[in-house]
Design a protein that fits this description.
Number of domains: 4
CATH topology of the largest domain: Molybdenum Cofactor Biosythetic Enzyme, Chain A
CATH architecture of the largest domain: 3-Layer(aba) Sandwich
Shape: elongated
Strand content: 25-35%
CATH superfamily of the largest domain: MoaB/Mog-like domain
Strand order of the largest sheet: 8-5-7-6-10-9
CATH class of the largest domain: Alpha Beta
Bound molecules: adenosine monophosphate, magnesium ion
Number of strands: 28
Number of helices: 7
Distance between the termini: 26 Å
Length: about 400
């Protein structure tokens, strides 16, 4: 049995960042920016008014002073002339501030007639002018790789970037194995259950940028598994669920090896999830997840998500751990890393009493995996532990 760290490093050695493709900005949300992007313009490109009011010289910002209104500047159409002392230009938010003007007096602070204003109030210290390039200047660079959030999409649009280079989506094939399984919505026989973690994993991996193909369930026979694994061809990552233990009906490893899989490891010192298998099948990486629903989902978090991130070019690193204090005493941990289903509330973490790896109801309530390293000594309430947020 190897450690979680060794297993993850071995998995990282099986994958590389995928190719880069160019997509329209409007389709780029959530994708991983592959190359840095540099602004080719200033924003705003001119000094802009940030209020509706009158553009004047700051030396005219004097209570009671009357100024001649000589024109108008609107968003999109500048006033072509110059504002001299004693003059004002009607101006609106987003409009270029005319030559000579150094102050915008807000319209609420003046008494206006058709072509004159009198400044009634001079309590503002803000000139309400955004200098050219206040937001960003030509040359401002967005670093890569990084995930394109809605905020970054808005910033790229503002830079006049209409297409971006992103890492292509990893294609993942998911194969559920087990004669006892049927798809949700089907009518299970008396000895059958519903394939569940398949759908949980699809949701988990698509949320971080994978494209997941759910293949038909493979029964526990050599021909059925052979067909399923062949159907997965062309994917970047083949994930099997179940059939990876040592029972008579656990055939996934053998069938995959017959089809040419080079096994990288089998069995990891962790709970849940010990019977985890990995290898390389042609150009694809292959991960054999344990079938127990919670084991499959926990291994999805601990191993598959970092592998997908590595394929997306986001680096080969484990998911970040956070720290919290425990709200209960915990017994000494055994020789395997334990990823306990837990809840963080008010900064304190509590592990659920029932840690059976078949309990999806417990996993569904959990918002963290509390991490106990191998041979962690008994801990008292208030001790600090690491956890992975869910
Ligand atoms: P296995 O790893 O095939 O021995 O499966 C371990 C346990 O997980 C068994 O109780 C299976 O019925 C169950 N199981 C396997 N695959 C799935 C799946 N896709 N969804 C739900 N349960 C599963
Ligand atoms: Mg099985």
């Amino acid at each position: 049995m190897i450690s979680v760290e060794e297993a993850l490093n071995t998995l990282f050695a099986l994958v590389n960042p995928l190719e880069v493709e160019i997509v329209p900005l409007r389709e780029a949300a959530g994708r991983v920016l592959a190359h840095p992007v540099t602004a080719q313009r200033d924003q705003p490109p001119f000094p802009a008014s940030s209020m509706d009011g009158y553009a004047i010289s700051d030396s005219d910002y004097v209570t009671g002073r009357t100024l001649q209104v000589i024109g108008e500047a609107t968003a999109g159409t500048r006033f072509e002339g110059t504002v001299d002392q004693g003059q004002a230009v009607r101006i609106f938010t987003g409009a270029p501030v005319p030559e000579g003007a150094t102050w915008v007096v807000v319209q609420e602070d003046v008494d206006a007639t058709k072509d004159q204003i009198t400044i009634r109030e001079t309590s503002e210290s803000n000139p309400y002018i955004r200098p050219a390039g206040t937001d960003f200047k030509t040359g401002k660079t967005l670093e890569a790789p990084q995930i394109l959030t809605p905020q970054l999409i808005a910033l790229l649009a503002s830079m006049n970037i209409s297409k971006v280079s992103v890492t292509r989506h990893p294609d993942v094939a998911l194969i559920s194995t087990g004669t006892e399984l049927v798809m949700p919505g089907e009518s299970p026989g008396p000895d059958q259950i519903i394939a569940s973690n398949t759908f949980g994993l699809k949701a988990m991996l698509e949320a971080i940028g994978a494209r997941v193909r759910v293949l038909p369930i493979a029964h526990d026979t050599i021909p059925a598994l052979t067909t399923a694994i062949k159907l997965a061809k062309g994917s970047d990552l083949i994930i099997t669920i179940g059939g990876a233990s040592v029972g008579d009906h656990d055939l996934v490893g053998d069938v995959a090896e017959t089809l040419g899989m080079e096994r990288a490891f089998y069995k990891v010192a962790m709970r849940p999830g010990k019977p985890l298998m990995a290898g390389k099948l042609g150009n694809a990486a292959m991960i054999g997840l344990p079938g127990n629903p919670v084991s499959a989902m926990v291994c999805g978090v601990v191993f598959v998500q970092p592998v997908i991130r590595a394929m997306l070019g986001l680096g080969k690193t484990p998911l970040p751990h956070a720290k919290a204090r425990i709200a209960q005493d915990l017994p000494e941990n055994g020789p395997r890393a334990h990823y306990m289903r837990a809840r963080i509330e008010d900064g304190q973490v509590t592990a659920f009493e029932r840690q059976d790896s078949a309990l999806l109801t417990v996993l569904a309530q959990a918002n963290a995996l509390l991490l106990r390293p191998p041979h962690d000594p008994a801990l008292q309430t208030g001790a600090e532990v690491a956890f992975v947020p869910l």
